[in-house]
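Human: We require from you a protein record containing the residue sequence and its fold in C-alpha cell form, and nothing else.

Assistant:
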Amino acid sequence: RLDRVDVEGVAAVELPQRPTEDVLFVVAGGGDGLEPGDCVVYPAPHAPAMLRAGDDGLTALLFATPAQPPPFHSGDPEPPRTVALADADSAYEGEAGRWVLLARQAGAQHAGVNHGRLVAGHDGAPPHCHSADEELFVFLEGTATFELWPSPLAVLEEQKEKETIDVRAGHVVSRPPSSGVSHSLRAGDQGVSFLV
C-alpha cells in the first residue's frame, strides 16, 4: 500500500496505526528534523506516530507492508529509525547512476523500498519479472521509458511485442507478481530518480 501524506505549514498529522512495517520517504518540505530524502522506518509493532511539518509544510510517501512482530517479541512498540539518502551506502554507484537499499539501511525487515537514479540514456536492471513480489515504481524526478517484455511463448504463439510507456516525475507504475511479463527501465534525456 502506498499513501501520499501532505501536511500544510506547521501542522501535524497522525500516521495510520495498522499491523504493518511502514516506510516514510520525505519528498519535499520538512519538520521535526526531517528533510527531503530522509527515510523513516516504523517497525512492527510501532506506536502511533505524529508527523509534524515545518514552516514550508511537508510532503511524504508512506509505504505499508503487512508485518507481524518476530516470534518471542515482547510486544512493546519499536522506535522509528531514520536514514538520510545523502548519507546512505550505495549498493551500486557508477557511470549508469546510483542504487540504494534505503529502507534496509533504516532497519526495515519486511519492506524493500529502494532509491534508484539513472543517468540519461542508461538502462536499469535487465528485463525481469517477479514470481512473489509486487514492484511499485514511484518516479521522483526526470523522465524514463518503462518497457514491458512479453514472454517468449507469447511472442511465438500470439506475436506479442514489447510495449513502451513514457513516465515522468509523479507517475506510479505497479508490476504485479507472476504476470509473466518482464519489465525494464531506460532513463530519458534528463535522467530519472525513483523509488521501488
